[in-house]
Amino acid sequence: MSNAGGQTLAATVDLIKQDTGSNFVMKLALAVSPSTNEDNKPAIERTRRLLMFLTILWQAGTLGTSYPQVMSSFVSSLGKKFAARDSSVKTMGRDILNALTALEMLVPGSVGKDKNLDCADIWLASLDSDPENLLDASAFANFVVVSLNSRKRDALLELETWDYLRDSLLLIFTRHYFCDEEPIALAVAPSVCLAMTCLFHAAGPQARSYMLGSPWTMNLCALLKAALGDIDEQDPFTVVLKERLVNRGTEFLDQITQAVRSEGSAPTSGTKNDW
Asked: Which domain of life is it from (predicted)?
């Protein structure tokens, strides 16, 4: 279903909504109502599927900006549990993040204005996941972008998030993933790169200084510059990676370069900073 184009999906859902016999929106609202949720394995899998379904619908804009409040409340309640590290939602963290991101993109400010949600706590809970997990890293990166202005400023949290995203991107550049994971890595790379760009832009002076002073940041910049430069045209991975990062990657490098110049001198990494 997620492979369907936005217009196709929207047209399909519109037809279903026009069918008064289907009661599509009402049934969807009923499906996410608290009374229908139980804490057991089948219910958890059902909840995950509902989250993914809502994410697809919200991303495609098929429900518009007016939909039953119970839908956003459903996602909000799960987000609160995730932030509190509730074991009942441990396996659906990225699904919750994806749904919250889609909701925020559909109705800007909806997540930040939700008194039941603390975006900083959601960031902290997300950092418990492994940056090696591409799907988790992608979900967190996308949520970082939409929630940057909806959290309390915390330099330590910014740095921990920066390290997480940087490690994820470094794994992609160093060809850590093979076979079926390679296409996922190529799909995820621009999202992580965008999140790092936005995070650096929003970070405070102290956090920025740390980011620029880290040798790992310099290593990442060197690898990114190499990926955007002269590459082996016979290697499909490097060709597609360059195509995917030509915009996001260039924006990231430009921002780091400008910041380094404004600092007066490039950070020391033990190697020549010629990126």
From this structure: Eukaryota
Amino acid identity for residue 191 in this structure:
S
pLDDT computed for residue 63 by the predictor:
61
Find, among 128, 119, 105, 130, the residue nearest to 154 by Cα: 119
Q: What are phi and psi of 61, to 5 degrees?
A: 70, 20
Contacts of 241 (CB under 8 A, 6+ apart): 172, 186, 189, 227
The residues, any chain, with a CB within 8 Å of residue 242's CB and separated by 6 or more, are 227, 228, 231
Condensed to tens digits (0 to 9), the pLDDT of residues 171-220 reads 999 989 888 999 999 999 999 999 999 999 999 888 999 999 999 999 99
* DSSP-derived secondary structure letter, 150: G
Residue 275 CA to residue 105 CA, distance in Å, equals 34
Using CA atoms, how far apart are residues 41 and 50, in angstroms rounded to an integer? 14
pLDDT at position 241: 93
What distance in Å separates the CA atoms of residue 34 and residue 246, rounded to the nearest whole number? 45
- The tokens of 207 are what? 């956090």
Do residues 96 and 79 lie in contact, with contact meaning Cβ atoms separated by under 8 Å?
yes
CA neighbor of 169 nearest in space, from 7, 161, 1:
161
List Cβ neighbours of 60 (8 Å cut-off, separation of 6 or more). Answer: 6, 9, 10, 13
Give the pLDDT score at 32. Answer: 60
Residues in the chain with pLDDT values less than 70: 1-42, 62-68, 264-275
Q: State the pLDDT at residue 12.
A: 52
